[in-house]
């Protein structure tokens, strides 16, 4: 029993363990599937194959490609004991996953084309997300932390934001109204 807890502690501390695999593999795969479904909605093949079939096909293909790329990137990261934001992991993982998927799709020439394409596109997307994350995080924090400041109602609006004193007066009026209505029901 002590060895199990000891191993769990070592896994949590170890930099090579994939603790946030949901964030780095599952979430991009689901987002790619949704993007693939959206691409299927505007595809020129939707009239021939049917909207549901083409959306499903695009969503499945986008999700499979993304899952292979993200899985290969994480495998390289764990093998190299690198950091999650290291772009070499993206390039090597993209090259490997592109080679495998390209070989399945188009032979040796397909493997070369797909490996270069996956390495370039995957590394570019990873670079863009590492640059965009701090900006999006600060924007999100500014909205969440300043709930009162992000939406200001105009002065002429009938909706008023009440302070503590006004809320207490409103509650007193509501309680008095409730008592008077409740007393009327007892008299009936």
3D structure, described in words:
- The chain is an all-alpha fold and about 190 residues long.
- It has a domain at about 20-80.
- It contains 6 helices and no strands.
- Helix 2 packs antiparallel against helix 4 and helix 4 (about 50-80) crosses helix 5 (about 85-145).
- The longest helix is centred in the middle third of the chain and has 59 residues, at about 85-145.
- The chain is elongated.
The total of helices stands at 6
Major sheet: size, sense and barrel closure?
none
Share of residues in helices: over 70%
Radius of gyration: 28 Å
Order of helices and strands: HHHHHH
Report how far apart the termini are: 70 Å
Structural class: mainly alpha
- The best one-word shape is elongated
| Percent strand | under 5%
What's the pLDDT, averaged over the residues?
A: 83
Assembly classification: single chain
Provide a concise account of the structure shown.
This protein is mainly α. The protein has helices at about 1-15, 20-40, 45-50, 50-80, 85-145, 165-185.
What's the SSE blueprint?
Elements: H1 2-13, H2 21-41, H3 46-49, H4 51-80, H5 87-145, H6 164-187
Helix pairs in contact: 2-4, 4-5
Keywords:
80% helix, mitochondrion targeting sequence binding, mainly alpha, transmembrane helix, membrane
């Amino acid at each position: 029993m002590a060895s199990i807890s000891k191993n769990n502690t070592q896994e949590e501390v170890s930099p090579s363990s994939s603790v946030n695999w949901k964030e780095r593999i599952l979430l991009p795969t689901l987002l790619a599937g949704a993007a693939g479904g959206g691409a299927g909605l505007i595809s020129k093949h939707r009239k021939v194959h049917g909207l549901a079939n083409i959306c499903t096909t695009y969503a499945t293909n986008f999700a499979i490609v993304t899952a292979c790329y993200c899985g290969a990137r994480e495998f390289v990261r764990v093998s190299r004991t690198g950091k999650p934001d290291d772009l070499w992991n993206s390039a090597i993982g993209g090259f490997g996953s592109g080679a495998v998927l390209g070989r399945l799709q188009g032979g040796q020439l397909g493997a070369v084309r797909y490996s270069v394409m996956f390495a370039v596109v995957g590394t570019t997307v990873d670079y863009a997300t590492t640059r965009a994350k701090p900006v999006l995080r600060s924007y999100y924090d500014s909205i969440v932390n300043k709930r009162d400041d992000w939406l200001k109602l105009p002065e002429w609006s009938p909706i008023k934001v009440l302070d503590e004193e006004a809320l207490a007066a409103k509650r007193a009026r509501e309680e008095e109204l409730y008592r008077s209505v409740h007393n009327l029901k007892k008299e009936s």
